[in-house]
Amino acid sequence: MSTYLAIIKRDLMISYKEGNNIAMGFGFFLVIVSLLPIGISADKDILSKVAPGFLWIAFLLTTLFTISRLFKDDYMDGSMDFMIMDSSIFEIIIICKVFAYWLSVTLPLIIIIPIMSVLLNISMDLILPIIFIIFISSPAFVFIAAVGSALTLGMERSGLLINILILPLYIPLIIIGISAISNNVIGINNYSFSVMLIAGFSMISIALSPFIISLVLRSN
Amino acid sequence: MKLVINNLHLELGDKFLFKNLSFLLESHKPLIIKGLNGSGKTSLLRSICGLLKPVSGEIIFFNDNGEKKDYLHLCNYSGHKLAIKNDLTVQENIRFWCSFYKKEINNDLLSKFKLDNLADISVSLLSAGQMKKLSLIRVFLSGKCIWLLDEPMVGLDIESQLIVKKLIEKHINLGKLILITSHTDLLFDNQILLNI
């Protein structure tokens, strides 16, 4: 097995055995989504209009909430040293770690979006477009959040700091994503253009974030 | 092969450790580094591994043909952090590091260190000494030709210390490089002692 596959397999095993991140992710996502009818309105019409955008924000916050330990365990137990020492392509190791996180935490959240959508009275026609737009924006979510996780590696209470550091970077993504979903709700069709922009944003994140993370981790 | 350390100057944050440190690490001549706590032994090892940037000085590796080469991928290091995952079993940890170093899974070392009966047990249930042995196994199975061992005997029982000593001697006899920091007296043939 290659070095890179070994890292993905190990991180998935740890994630499965610990279960913390998966359970916390599910719990956090569920709580935020269930707060919407309480905080805004239980009126079905109002809910169906605001819920798609809200679902997207809830997904983003869940990512930020669960990613703070992405590099911390390897840093604390010394494994990170050997990954830096032994691999000339440390950036690929970083991509593997983020991918393992995406598989273990983000993908299950995407899978439960249809259930959440039904709970929030989102129209059946919108569920697939919402899932698709969240799916293609998820690489940007996790790779940008991973930069925050690396930047706050040696700090206590890093979870809150990640949000402060990283949330502004999501502003373009939030504007494009929410406008795409909202325009779909009111019938304006710029969906495919927004999808392309978000896909571009995700690709740029995948291409640049590993180098930034590598720089930060090596300097630690 | 040899590793030449020239006028190394190390600082850790604002803390001065040493400067103008020069020595030679050669095949068949294990180097034992001694020094007071905080004198910079661990930092020296981390610096050789490329994990700590020296203020000045150079570290040069020459292969068996006397050619200057990159060496970081040839190094393995065992430090205070054990690089083992408490959530995984002994066997899962070993499997991971074997895959990481692209080596065949070798259970002989587990048997030698009497960890074979604990292969399916979570590492969190091991004693400190057993964890240390597992961490050393990671270095021994890596197949790297430069071993940098930071206090390898700490926490080990006498029997395990003898096994580690034999494995180190085997590495030395193969003409590979080894640098050890230790507060205890280790006796190897042709060893060179350096106090920092």
Structure write-up:
The complex is a heterodimer of chains A (220) and B (196). Chain A is mostly helical. Chain A is built from 10 helices and no strands. The longest helix of chain A is centred in the middle third of the chain and has 30 residues. Chain A is elongated and about 55 Å long. By secondary structure, chain B is of the alpha/beta class. The model of chain B has no long low-confidence stretch (mean pLDDT 90). Helix content of chain B is 28%, strand content 28%. The radius of gyration of chain B is 17 Å and the shape is globular. In chain B, the strands form 2 sheets. A 5-stranded parallel beta sheet of chain B has the order 6-7-8-3-9, sandwiched between helices. Chain B has a 4-stranded antiparallel beta sheet with strand order 2-1-4-5, covered by helices on one side. The interface between A and B is medium-sized, with 23 and 25 residues.
Roughly what fraction of the amino acids of chain A lie in strands? under 5%
Strand content of chain B: 25-35%
Give the termini separation of chain B: 24 Å
**How many domain regions of chain B?**
1
Number of strands of chain B: 9
CATH class of chain B equals Alpha Beta
The computed structural class of chain A is: mainly alpha
Question: What structural class do the secondary elements of chain B suggest?
Answer: alpha/beta
Order of helices and strands of chain A: HHHHHHHHHH
Number of strands of chain A: 0
> Rg of chain A from C-alpha positions?
18 Å
